[in-house]
Amino acid sequence: MARRRKIYEGKAKILYAGPEPGTLVQYFKDDATAFNNKKKGVITGKGVLNNRISEYLMMKLGEIGIPHHFLRRLNMREQLVREVEIIPVEVIVRNIAAGSFCERFKAKEGTPLPRSIVEYCYKSDELDDPLVSEEHITAFGWAAPQELDDMLSMSLRINDFLSGLFLGAGLKLIDFKLEFGRLFEDDMVRVVLADEITPDGCRLWDIETGKKLDKDRFRRDLGDVSEAYQEVARRLGLTPEAGPRD
């Protein structure tokens, strides 16, 4: 088989040139990082689980009209996606105080927020992904005002939908991050959901016990990291009890 052309390698995924123009193959790695790449490790089976979880959530979001880059899953670790121009802004939606939010505002972890709070970070490992305002985003040309409006409205719709979906699986959606990209079709450009939606970028707690079932288990050395990802997939009905296999 011909060697594929690598387009980009990130912390958790590799992008290869796709089989058709305008497509990419997104490969999910088992590598794990935290604190902006300061902590590194491997979570066995994470790539397999994240591939399946992200496929499921993207397809569910597509059913309610959220445009996204996902096309189809190719195998256990790879999926075919549309090629987009990534907007260098992460959108973070917070429902309950956790993580860096608690540090910044001296809030007690687990405190419900008065309403969902949306924050923006500039995607830059060199700068440790700093928090930015809408004014920064539009002034520096990272996104146009209409693009930012689209990203915000989609993020809030995604939050409403995923909160209900996870609730049905006995999980509480604490917070999560999203990335968006520009999809060029003929003479049209539109903003679509990109990257992934997985326990790597979502905080998910068991409703009954408060047990963390996300990457915080890796960040905080809580153990049973692979088992937590597997539990999320199991509750969504995506894996057999035996777990993932390559």
Explain this structure to me?
The protein folds into two domains: 6-82, Phosphorylase Kinase, domain 1, CATH 3.30.200; 86-225, D-amino Acid Aminotransferase, Chain A, domain 1, CATH 3.30.470. 28% of the residues lie in helices and 33% in strands. It contains six helices and 14 strands. It has helices spanning 46-63, 100-105, 134-139, 145-168, 216-219, 225-235; strands at 6-9, 13-17, 23-28, 31-34, 39-42, 70-73, 78-82, 85-86, 89-96, 112-122, 131-132, 171-185, 188-194, 202-206. The strands form three sheets. Strands 8, 9, 10, 11, 12, 13 and 14 form a seven-stranded antiparallel sheet that branches. The chain has a five-stranded antiparallel sheet with strand order 1-2-3-7-6. Strand 10 and strand 11 form a beta hairpin. The protein starts with 5 loop residues before the first strand and ends in an 11-residue tail after the last helix.
Name its key features.
single chain; about 250 residues; alpha+beta; Phosphorylase Kinase, domain 1; D-amino Acid Aminotransferase, Chain A, domain 1; 2 domains; seven-stranded antiparallel sheet; five-stranded antiparallel sheet; 6 helices; globular
